[in-house]
Amino acid sequence: MTTWFDDDLRTLGEQHLLRRRRQVAPWQAPAELTPHDEALRATTYCVDGQERLSFGSNDYLGLSQHPALMAAAHAAIDRYGVGATASPLVCGHSPEHEALEAELAALVGLPRALYFYAGYAANVGAIPALVGQGDAVFSDALNHACIIDGVRLSRAEAHIVPHGDLAALEAALRSSTARRKLVVTDAVFSMDGNVADVPALLALCERFDALLMIDDAHGFGVLGPQGEGTLAHHGMAGVQGVAPAWQGRLDRLVYMATLGKAAGVAGAFVAGSPQAIEWIMQKARTYMFATAAPAHIAAALRAGVRVIRDEPQRRDHLQALRHQLQAGVGRGLEAGSAWRLMPSDTAIQPLVIGRNDDALAVMAALDAQGIWVPAIRPPTVPAGTARLRISLSAAHTTEQVQRLCEALQAAHGCKAP
């Protein structure tokens, strides 16, 4: 029977779709971290034993190596140990988890939040809690895999809407006779970096009496004046609470964001009205039947929330790096080049190459120059749009971004043999 796997793996290889898992560890810093060492540990990795400058992680603010977060985790281990021992509804919900949920709700400006051990678990659990058989879900065509799987598990009637097409969504909502309707979308699309028009989506949901759920995995911590995310980016809600124009209108919104990206640690949360969050807590199987994340994870995240809120200079630096990269890549591409840097105002800067094998060849050329940028291929992105997903971090320096621009210029035109 193993020949089944041999044949299928061979086919993946022929399509240049085999994934390779690498051993990755932070740069080995001295015992006493300086701010410079902290940044190096967040951007320079030991990949399969070789030092590489990384533009591949989602550590958008460089918090994974922040001393305050590590100190909070160490202190919580001393108090709580290293395991939560049971699900949150049994005995896995600690005072650290309780405080974290209150602080997350306050940051995004919504009444209540619920912490999950992983972002995938949050979506796969929350969507089937919100809708089921007899209901309808309207999902953007470029939504993340965890949204797709949540939709499938819900057993609701699924409508896949062309990416960002508000007219198509309006038509689908108008024609639906489902008892309950849910529109679900990424807030920042993980492979394109573009931001969903959340106000327009919510307006459609109001017209057709639908719920709206947004996944702000790549906006939380990065967008908004204090890192509150995409709602604050659109002027809807944030640390000052719900904006006056949106008072009473966000009750039909369920907000989700992950905490292993800009927040630097692990897990995710959903936020919204007290009634919606209580219902998700009662019905999400990934919350009810999974062991909670350990308390030290929650303690580290609480420290991360404070850094996100109180250190806007990290987001300012990130935006300066984005402008530098866009200008540098733009100068390096020849007229008529098949490469295309997609427009993005976020830390995600996708450079579309085209063919799978060519994207792998460019990745290898950068790797030979000591730079790690992952090549992203189908099914993560549509066929024919294989790309380098360049991820910027506030821990990067202008010199490091300049090095990447020069390396890309040297690799320009690189193709598979």
Number of helices: 16
Radius of gyration: 22 Å
The CATH superfamily of the largest domain is known as Type I PLP-dependent aspartate aminotransferase-like (Major domain)
Average residue-wise pLDDT = 94
Query: What's the N-to-C terminus distance?
Result: 34 Å
Query: Strand order across the biggest sheet?
Result: 4-12-11-8-7-5-6
What count of structural domains? 2
**Inertia-based shape:** globular
What structural class do you assign from the helix and strand content? alpha/beta
Largest sheet, if any? 7 strands, mixed
The CATH class label of the largest domain is: Alpha Beta
Number of strands: 17
- Per CATH, what is the topology of the largest domain? Aspartate Aminotransferase, domain 2
Helix amount = 40-55%
CATH architecture label name of the largest domain: 3-Layer(aba) Sandwich
User: Which residues form runs of ≥5 with pLDDT under 50?
Assistant: none
Oligomeric status: single chain
User: What percent of residues are in strands?
Assistant: 15-25%
Describe this structure in words.
With 417 residues, this protein is of the alpha/beta class. It has two domains: 22-54 and 312-411, Alpha-Beta Complex (Aspartate Aminotransferase, domain 1), CATH 3.90.1150.10; 70-310, 3-Layer(aba) Sandwich (Aspartate Aminotransferase, domain 2). The chain has 16 helices and 17 strands. The chain has helices at 2-14, 35-43, 67-80, 88-92, 95-108, 119-130, 145-154, 166-175, 198-207, 230-233, 274-283, 285-288, 295-310, 313-332, 356-368, 398-411; strands spanning 24-26, 44-47, 50-54, 112-116, 136-140, 157-161, 181-186, 211-215, 237-238, 241-242, 253-258, 268-272, 340-341, 348-354, 371-372, 375-376, 386-391. It has a seven-stranded mixed beta sheet with strand order 4-12-11-8-7-5-6, sandwiched between helices. The longest helix is centred in the C-terminal third of the chain and has 20 residues, at 313-332. The model has no long low-confidence stretch (mean pLDDT 94).
